[in-house]
Fold this protein.
Amino acid sequence: MGKLRLVAPDGSVLELDKERGVLGRDKDCDLRLEDRSISRRHVVLEQREGRWHFTDQGSANGTQLDGRRVSEGALAHGQELKVGTVALRVELEDDLATVLIDPSAAIDRTVVLAATEADPPTPRRPTPPPLPPPAPPRAAPAAGLGPREDAAARLGVAVGASSWEVKARYDEMSADLEARIASAQTPHLQRTWQKNLEELRDAVRLLAPDLLLDYAVSDLPSAQPVVVPESIDAPPSMIRGPGASIPPEPAPRAARRGVGVAFATLVAFASMLLVAAAVFFMLSTGKNQEEIARRESDAAYLEARETVARLAPVETLLRSGALRNGRLRLCNRAAVPVEIAWLGAVYLRPSALPAGSDAQLAARASGFDIATFNSAFCAREFNLTLAPGEERDLELSSNEPRCAWDGSALFWSLAAQRAGALPDPVPGAAAVADRGTVWMSGLVEPKGGCVNVHGDW
Amino acid sequence: MSAAHKPAASRRTFPIAVVVALVVVLPLFVYTTRLGISWRASSARLVELEREAASVQARAAVLKRAAETLRTHDFQVCNRSGDALTLPWVAAVHHDGQSLRLFDSSRCQGFRSPPIYAGESRALLFSSTQEGCNWGGQVLFYAMNAVRESDSGSASYNLIGAWGRDFDPKCFNLR
């Protein structure tokens, strides 16, 4: 593993030639920078698994890698490591194996260099046994080399490597290429990575034809990159070496994920509300049904219904006004005065209503209190003579309860007779025997009207 | 997890929510709505039943009283006096189940009350083709003029009332 060099903007170089070192302001640090934005022990730089890594030590102003604030990560050649406000360019003297690709070059011009001094990547899947050492380095496919040899060289495995060896190698390299394709910042770069990936697949198909059929690209495990383009016209920061951190997700994708989460939360909340409402409705409906059944079978209710059905004719009578008072009004259409010798009436007596919540029912029920007025018991109070053509509303006030009558009646009857002096008898005719008493009766129309008192006078 | 995996995961979040919404929430919504409609119908039925019960019981109470008031009886006069009685005029209100009817003897030709001797009981009725004069003897309200003939002379009494009220409805006792 080579040295790590950090180049400051002023051109000064910090070089770390051991496997672990601390960068900071403190005089005990391995790499010392006098800047107020740098903490005393700012960041630790160390080699792990053949790569340089950095770990921020909780610095006040943080550490950024290629403009992105991170607390730890792997370093690659050409990246910018910013400690505090000081930007340092990373230079690795002897990096991991790289593939130098000229996008315009044919495959036979591609130089594949397997990792030689670096440790082989650790297999991510526990099942397969440890990877065998990669195939020996090959500068370039020799002229006349067979396709299998060429494919093996491209994957960095021996020609007779087993399928799982091919797969493991392919997993490493393809995962890195997938990541690079996803984060490629120029179409040119993306095409290059894509082409490289297709070549890898061709190589795998050749060496292990049954291997790539059963897993998709999205299932490929991640692996650290092994290939780095060299002759691509791109800034150094875009060419990332081993351990390059994955770029942040594009904002729209994150926003879409946020919307999805919000929608899922809304759905869950709505589901809970609906379940609660359903439970409430279910319980309440059951309770209502029980109450309905109880009330429908209630003895008092059933008896009342039976009574109403049985007494339907009575209701018809009531609706016809059978028990409705009217005002009694007498008219004398005769040419002679008429004395009402006797008058009787049957009427509904208005009763004092009992207090209570069911006052309306009490009023209707007590409205059938039948009373009688009989003038025979009120000789002093009742004295009525109607002049010819006179009309009179009847009403009688008295301290005697049975003689106090407001003139309302259902049924009336009277005895009327001619009042005043009897006419002289006509010579030769029979003498007038009496005053010609007549009895009359009738039902009072609720609408009113005048009862014509008439006789053969 | 490689970078290539992340977009797939984020794409899956929204469709799962949509699928949950379609598979769970929509049927749940429909089910809850139906339960709500059922609950509302049962609540309305309960209120209606409560109102109907109160109404029916009130009507039943009124009709019972009305039926008692409108019950008709046979017009029967019992002479408990020691003298003979005549009824020169009789009026009776009865009903045919539809409306009230009036019988007034003064309007009916041929009505003549026979004397009711001491201790005798007599049911009154009158058959006639004359309108309002065909009376089967049923009475609800009555009015009459009764004349008591005695050795000391005659006395006339005018009576009116609801039949059976304050006396035995089977017999109107004249003393």
In short: The helical segments of chain A are 147-155, 163-183, 187-207, 251-296, 299-310, 312-319, 359-366. The first helix of chain A runs from residue 147 to 155.
